[in-house]
Amino acid sequence: MELKQSTLMYFSPTGSTAQVIRSMADHSAAPVSEVNLTPIQDPCRRSFDDRELLIIGVPVFGGRIPPVVKDRLAYIKGADTPAVVVATYGNRHYDDALRELSDFLSAKGFVTIAGAAVVTRHSIVPTIAEGRPDEGDYAAFNAFTEQVFERIAAMEQGHPEAVTLPGNPEYKDFKGIPFKPITNMDCVACCACVAVCPMGAIPMDSPSKTIKEKCITCMACVWACPKNARALGKMDILFTKQHIGKTAKVHKNPEFFL
Ligand SMILES: Cc1cc2nc3c(=O)[nH]c(=O)nc-3n(C[C@H](O)[C@H](O)[C@H](O)COP(=O)(O)O)c2cc1C
């Protein structure tokens, strides 16, 4: 099948997922468009046909996909449109995220033909998986991307074959992280954090605050602050490190499903 268009979509509060997904662009012979689902926005209303490819990347939050991704994609429509799903995760585990994303897309008319789970620096404890993805990860990921496009070229239009992805159909329970970023005296109210918050959880007129009910602890504000004035509490980071430390210590390779 000759593709008409490839669309790269990603939700990426601290940038790792965007980087991984963008690395796929050069492999597409068809024109590539990009949809960044991260900034606060109305739900996407695009329809895709069976000569298009959707490539979508999300970070793993608590073994699941961030719920806001589903909100932003509530009205997308596919028509036996092939999709590739990518989950980035901080070297603990991706659990049910690939499966959840694929199930969600399937209900919208897409057929997941391939998936990948890629280790990235942990956005809460950046000493975990620091420097990932590294050269080796990208070499493997590029090879996977090439295979995906070869598979599509050999595919008959309208008949994509679904891939089996790991994950429990009864997804892991994750209700979010209870602790939220706090602001110290170095804040100069530049509002860089307000601009990057995907949830509108930082008020423009009082950027040192965090609206707890809206915040998803995605760390976008912490990484964007030019004064390093926003952070999680030291005890919160220590708790997270202890909680995930053991499983996250073992070097995990990217995993591909085709
Ligand atoms: C709220 C939250 C929950 C997370 N849960 C997991 C997890 O369950 N497993 C894991 O390995 N990494 C987890 N991570 C790490 C992220 O999945 C990882 O750093 C991801 O690459 C961040 O993507 P981004 O840079 O595009 O924002 C979590 C990060 C956050 C902020």
TrEMBL record:
<feature type="domain" description="Flavodoxin-like">
    <location>
        <begin position="6"/>
        <end position="149"/>
    </location>
</feature>
<dbReference type="InterPro" id="IPR017896">
    <property type="entry name" value="4Fe4S_Fe-S-bd"/>
</dbReference>
<dbReference type="InterPro" id="IPR008254">
    <property type="entry name" value="Flavodoxin/NO_synth"/>
</dbReference>
<keyword id="KW-0408">Iron</keyword>
<dbReference type="InterPro" id="IPR017900">
    <property type="entry name" value="4Fe4S_Fe_S_CS"/>
</dbReference>
<feature type="domain" description="4Fe-4S ferredoxin-type">
    <location>
        <begin position="179"/>
        <end position="207"/>
    </location>
</feature>
<dbReference type="InterPro" id="IPR029039">
    <property type="entry name" value="Flavoprotein-like_sf"/>
</dbReference>
<protein>
    <submittedName>
        <fullName>4Fe-4S binding domain-containing protein</fullName>
    </submittedName>
</protein>
<dbReference type="GO" id="GO:0010181">
    <property type="term" value="F:FMN binding"/>
</dbReference>
<dbReference type="GO" id="GO:0016651">
    <property type="term" value="F:oxidoreductase activity, acting on NAD(P)H"/>
</dbReference>
<dbReference type="GO" id="GO:0051536">
    <property type="term" value="F:iron-sulfur cluster binding"/>
</dbReference>
<feature type="domain" description="4Fe-4S ferredoxin-type">
    <location>
        <begin position="212"/>
        <end position="235"/>
    </location>
</feature>
<dbReference type="Pfam" id="PF13187">
    <property type="entry name" value="Fer4_9"/>
</dbReference>
<keyword id="KW-0479">Metal-binding</keyword>
<dbReference type="InterPro" id="IPR047964">
    <property type="entry name" value="EFR1-like"/>
</dbReference>
<keyword id="KW-0411">Iron-sulfur</keyword>
<dbReference type="GO" id="GO:0046872">
    <property type="term" value="F:metal ion binding"/>
</dbReference>
